[in-house]
From TrEMBL:
Pfam families in the record: Bmp
Family: Belongs to the BMP lipoprotein family.
Species the sequence originates in: Alkalihalophilus lindianensis
Name under which the protein is recorded: BMP family ABC transporter substrate-binding protein
Localisation per UniProt entry: Cell membrane
Sequence intervals crossing the membrane: none
Signal sequence residues: none
Bilayer topology: Lipid-anchor
UniProt keyword annotations, A-Z: Cell membrane, Lipoprotein, Membrane, Signal
Keyword Translocase tagged: no
Superkingdom per UniProt: Bacteria
Length: 320
């Protein structure tokens, strides 16, 4: 089944179950859609997928869209919101967790706008937060990494300690091989390529041969270096097998671009609910990407069976 159709079938009840609208209430009109991004849209990862989601909305719903890059403060958010209002935009996506706080603070001042953030926590009658539960995707990535290492030492180069996929990565690796060493380095920034590559150079000297660059502003550059050194990587946010099938064992993929389109459809239908909503493999918005030919068939089948079981019953292999 096409992923977008699957998303609609799975997520439509979630957005409608607390609808409780009276028959007299008028449905909102989707006049335009705005997108706020912390950095830029050309990171080949998280931000690029958000921008692609905006383009999907423009194409499928034939509605005006606009975006602002490098929005990093409350002042920036208010300024961009006012500019969007001048364009009759009434659905605004903040593409990251920092927007949850800003949207919650200003939402009462903009009752005609519905705000949508990601991976944060919100309150307000016209604010929705969509959170990817990324622990499991990290867990399966850790399983692949532990099964693929020749040095018995793998590493994640991450942006921030709060990322749930990091704990998942470590636990998945240990489940696959209790003797594997797992190192995690924190760049403390999504886009600091220089620091991420410095960490890679340090870790390479330690003999680490499998890397999980969990930062959407530096992941591509790290994978390119991993490929140059003849080592292995696990892609992040998008399917990055195109960076090198012999290098990228698999990828942890978040289908945020398709979720964007669904959310806009729900808003247009009057079914988009405020509050905090979580999504995972079972919702069709997280998956693993293509497997490298370097991954043995039996390992690929074991991982796929574990994912299927997790989708069915919500149980990870270490919980069985």
């Amino acid at each position: 089944m096409h992923i977008q159709r699957l998303l609609i079938l799975i997520l439509l009840p979630l957005f409608m179950f607390v609808m409780g609208c009276s028959s007299e209430a008028s449905e909102p009109t989707l006049d335009g859609v705005g997108l706020l991004i912390e950095d830029t849209i050309d990171d080949q990862g998280w931000n690029s997928k958000g921008y692609q989601g905006l383009l999907n909305i423009h194409s499928s719903l034939d509605v005006h869209v606009d975006f602002r890059e490098e929005v990093n403060s409350r002042y920036d958010v208010i300024s961009a919101t006012n500019a969007f209002i001048d364009q009759d935009i009434n659905l605004i996506f903040g593409h990251g967790h920092i927007f949850a706080e800003y949207f919650s603070e200003i939402s009462e001042d903009y009752p005609s706008i519905h705000f949508v953030s990601f991976n944060g926590e919100v309150n307000g009658d016209n604010v929705t937060n969509l959170e990817f539960d990324s622990y499991a995707m990290g867990f399966f990535a850790g399983m692949v990494g532990a099964a693929s290492t020749q040095s018995n030492h793998i590493a994640a180069i991450a942006a921030f300690p709060w990322q749930p996929e990091l704990e998942g990565f470590k636990n998945g690796a240990i489940h696959m091989d209790p003797n594997v060493d797992v190192t995690i380095k924190y760049v403390e920034d999504w886009t600091d390529v220089e620091k991420a590559l410095d960490y890679f150079d340090q870790l390479k000297q330690e003999g680490i041969d499998v890397y999980y660059p969990a930062g959407d502003g530096f992941h591509v550059e790290v994978i390119e270096q991993v490929k140059h050194e003849g080592l292995y990587a696990i892609g992040y946010v998008g399917d990055q097998s195109d960076l090198g099938e012999a290098t990228v064992l698999t990828s942890t993929v978040q289908h945020v671009d398709q979720l964007y389109e669904l959310v806009a459809q729900q808003f247009k239908a009057g079914a988009l609910q405020p509050g905090n909503h979580t999504f995972d493999f079972s919702d069709g918005v997280i998956s693993l990407g293509s497997f490298s030919p370097q991954v043995p068939t039996d390992l690929k089948e074991d991982i796929e069976e574990a994912i299927d079981a997790y989708i069915r019953n919500g149980t990870l292999p270490n919980e069985e």
